[in-house]
Amino acid sequence: xxxxxxxxxxxxxxxxxxxxxxxxxxxxxxxxxxxxxxxxxxxxxxxxxxxxxxxxxxxxxxxxxxxxxxxxxxxxxxxxxxxxxxxxxxxxxxxxxxxxxxxxxxxxxxxxxxxxxxxxxxxxxxxxxxxxxxxxxxxxxxxxxxxxxxxxxxxxxxxxxxxxxxxxxxxxxxxxxxxxxxxxxxxxxxxxxxxxxxxxxxxxxxxxxxxxxxxxxxxxxxxxxxxxxxxxxxxxxxxxxxxxxxxxxxxxxxxxxxxxxxxxxxxxxxxxxxxxxxxxxxxxxxxxxxxxxxxxxxxxxxxxxxxxxxxxxxxxxxxxxxxxxxxxxxxxxxxxxxxxxxxxxxxxxxxxxxxxxxxxxxxxxxxxxxxxxxxxxxxxxxxxxxxxxxxxxxxxxxxxxxxxxxxxxxxxxxxxxxxxxxxxxxxxxxxx
Length: 432
Ligand SMILES: *[C@@H]1O[C@H](CO)[C@@H](O)[C@H](O)[C@H]1NC(C)=O
Ligand SMILES: *[C@@H]1O[C@H](CO)[C@@H](O)[C@H](O)[C@H]1NC(C)=O
Ligand SMILES: *[C@@H]1O[C@H](CO)[C@@H](O)[C@H](O)[C@H]1NC(C)=O
Ligand SMILES: *[C@@H]1O[C@H](CO)[C@@H](O)[C@H](O)[C@H]1NC(C)=O
Ligand SMILES: *[C@@H]1O[C@H](CO)[C@@H](O)[C@H](O)[C@H]1NC(C)=O
Ligand SMILES: *[C@@H]1O[C@H](CO)[C@@H](O)[C@H](O)[C@H]1NC(C)=O
Ligand SMILES: *[C@@H]1O[C@H](CO)[C@@H](O)[C@H](O)[C@H]1NC(C)=O
Known about the structure:
mainly beta; four-stranded antiparallel beta sheet; globular; disordered N terminus; binds 2-acetamido-2-deoxy-beta-D-glucopyranose; signal; Methanethiol oxidase
């Protein structure tokens, strides 16, 4: 089932001149930004849970992604001392000094909700044990790298695993700055604060978080509680300036992700039901989230997941677990996104976390979602791989196998990657 095929293939053959102009505009605009663009990524970090606790620990895998014979080679594994963290998302700091990794179920086993690694030697990350963890909150999900070299982290819950959660802020030395909102009365319009996706626009000094689900409700014996709210924040005072109920949330399995559309002041969010929504953060509390794109069947069963915007906000990758796609959208006009291409994963592989390299040409997709095993009700194991896709230079389509030999491989298969260690469930990915 590929309902958008006709639109996808129609737009090939974009004039090269346009692409060169776009590249020039990009390098001019970001010449003095904190993040140096356009460098090629050398490493991919994959954050994975051990499937069999008697054979292995939850671990961070380091792969080479430099073009050449070593592409996809496993360079290193950093074992944590833990099992049961449920490794979730990862993000490198803008300085490249730190890697932050979240742990989805850790709080239920009294384990840390965030694990930080030093990337002083990027091929050999070192787990840090000297970072103060959030005090009022737990169940970390997603990070935004802040210009000062630190992070913002969504914490889905309070310290014991229930709403309200917080957004934690770390500075460039990984000092915990605070957990927000400090004034919980700001949550009054929608008390179920379980922030999951997070995007930030440092030019406009705003941030958007979306509430996904009450984690403890996913454990056996509870009724699953999915959330359908988004909140706009001021980064100046870390206060909430707008709370919105998302439209068309029938069949939604929670609002999973939110990202800033470059520095345009706008945000995309997904409802877990194939709907891509746009919210104009510049309108503050008066903003109205609108559905601007719809992927998969009307009933919402697509399970749209993670969004990966490009630096300038002109392209977006969106993964869809149930139907196994990664779609490339032209988001130059953010309220009228157009599909440019789609990468199809094998039947039942699943497609979840999707990340792009620094030069915005290499895409990595992880196919494990969440399998809570005997303790929980969510069982979306996917085929537990990481796959690579490459984009052409103007970023208008995925390249073919003839153009790039690894375009449909290698498949990093976490079931058989480490013989004797059992399989791994790989979720979080981060390029450096
Ligand atoms: C875990 O590994 C041990 C040792 O090989 C094995 O006995 C056990 O059955 C495995 N458990 C599961 C759940 O696969
Ligand atoms: C924690 O340890 C790392 C690595 O040794 C070091 O770079 C960092 O400064 C330490 N952080 C704090 C807050 O002490
Ligand atoms: C977290 O919230 C739950 C539900 O409201 C409450 O029972 C629990 O005491 C809270 N935990 C903490 C540490 O505040
Ligand atoms: C925070 O700052 C925003 C503007 O950025 C302002 O509208 C809002 O009232 C402030 N909130 C608080 C609680 O100070
Ligand atoms: C967002 O709102 C601002 C402020 O009203 C406006 O200037 C801008 O055009 C809007 N953006 C879009 C894409 O509608
Ligand atoms: C992307 O969208 C913009 C604005 O709608 C359009 O001008 C441009 O041609 C599109 N690019 C491609 C590759 O379709
Ligand atoms: C991964 O390895 C397992 C065990 O060898 C195998 O059953 C499975 O088919 C492989 N998956 C892929 C996508 O190659």
